[in-house]
Amino acid sequence: MNKIAECLQLYREKFPEDWISCMDWDTRPEAESQRGNVQIVQFANTCFEKLTISLLSGEYILNIQAIRDDIHLFSNLLTSHEYLSDGNQYKNMLSDCYELLDRSILKCLTLYNYIICLYENKYEEASISSFFVSNDELSTGRMIGHLRYFAQYVRPICKIEYNLSFKDSLIEDLFCMSKELSEVDDINPVIKKVLLDKVFFLLSKLLRVQEKSTIIYYDSIRYEIKNSELSSSVLKEFQEKFYQLYDKNNLLSFLNTNFSRLEQSLNQSSDTFTFPDMVLIMKCYQELSGRESGIENVLALFQKREIGSTRYDVYSYNVLKNYFYNSRFSNRLSSPTYSLDDFERDYSFIVDLQKETGINNFHPYKKSLSFLKHKISEQINSSAFSDYDRVFKLYSECIKKFKDSISWCSERDFYAFQFPYEDSLIQYESFSVFYPSSFSRPLRYDELRKELLQYERDYDVYAAQKIFIEEKQNMMKIKADVENAKSMIDDAKKESVKILGVFSTVVTFLFGSIDVFSKTKDFKETLLTSLGVGIVLYFFCTLIYLLLLSGDDYKNKPVKFYSILFIAMIGAMILAAYLGSLI
């Protein structure tokens, strides 16, 4: 039985129907009124403890529908009562006190249901944009007994945990809340410690993100909030891991003292290696160089882990899965040998992973933009524009995804990593307490939007440079075409001059040979003269052919060239020998 059901059962036992009317109002009205008031206040305090433990332990996560049904059943019972107004003074006073109890419990149940709505909006994809409460809601100051603390402290603290992102005003709100809680001395001390621990832990996270001391005036007294004053013995492990992850000095100290032991546990006792241990060692591997195999070992171990069946556990598993693969991606991006092809492969994997898990983490796109910005600068500085269009297209796509993912994360007050329910529990003396934000750092969405704006400005600059580069490439192409055409014209002129010179020689030779033919006396002499002229003409044709050959022709067709030259030379020698024999 959950705590809401226990509270409902106890209410029915303590306040059966007509319980006020059944009291002895005739003989002892004042004593009965006092007894009834004590019973109401005692139940209010007991109800406060049960509702608070239920909410702080995250009882609704394990069976959200059962909790909702019991809240609905309890609320219907509280609103079905008719209160007395025609009795004596004491009887009416007790009836008014009873009505105040019902209204106080009803408000607490409404606020509890509000936290469930926050949970559904964040983890169940319920898309709840607003949560309305009726105008006649009871003010916190009028609530009876300890129930007012539920509205004043318990619900606001749980709300901040679910919606934790950095805001300056939150530091002041939490500090004032801690001061007020410290002065409360009439509630269960364990509950008080839990509430103070949660406030201090949230404060320490916000102060770490702010990275400067904060001065607050409370009751006209100046306070400087320091992380050293916000420690808790119960939260020691969470706080240590938080500072090891986000404080450079603490991380270096851990690497020097305890890292080898943690890595040994990963390799030898992987069954007891927890999700928080995985997050911490992954951070260590990112800090160290040459630890790619260790990163793969963490991923392999993570894939083997079984998770719970609740939506919260499934969501947490998907968040962690993205966190670990994003860490591997970031580690690869830092390698000096990481190529654009490598990037496209890993980037596509991350995009597919986000589609598969439904987690639109902004981190990989932020890292991608930094990498691509460097690549674009390299292209511009080297004047090698072969991959410029490719890089520019990826840069443009990453900006859009970075913008969309910031919106997605801010709407859900996203945590970079998140543990399943069992790994998010801290054991106190009498019950376990749920810490939904674990030791994840709150995000500064204002800073992320500033980075996005800078990347968008860079995009405009790169777009202008892209147009200039395209124009420059077009001009260079046109210039090359002009130079090529000019070279072709010059070559054609030279070839024409050569061919014209050879033809002029041939024509001159032929006209000069007419006289030789006119003096021939018989057929034999004419035939020999014709052969001689033919061989000379063949020699001229060979000469023209050689003049028209290009450099490539000389290289690619050497046999043909030398064959022609050889035949021409043999012919000339035969002619010379024959003519010589005639003389």
Features:
single chain; 583 residues; mainly alpha; two-stranded antiparallel ribbon; 21 helices; rod-shaped
Describe the structure.
The protein has helices spanning 3-14, 29-56, 59-62, 64-79, 89-123, 147-162, 168-182, 189-210, 236-246, 248-257, 259-268, 275-287, 292-304, 311-333, 340-357, 363-382, 388-412, 445-518, 523-548, 551-556, 558-582, and strands at residues 214-218, 221-225, 425-427, 432-434. The chain has 583 residues and is an all-alpha fold. Strands 1-2 form a two-stranded antiparallel sheet. A two-stranded antiparallel sheet has the order 3-4. The longest helix is centred in the C-terminal third of the chain and has 74 residues, at 445-518. It starts with a helix and ends with a helix.
Number of helices: 21
How big is the Rg?
Answer: 45 Å
Helix and strand content put the structural class at mainly alpha
The biggest beta sheet reads: 2 strands, antiparallel
Q: Strand order across the biggest sheet?
A: 1-2
Shape: rod-shaped
Percentage beta strand: under 5%
Distance between the termini: 138 Å
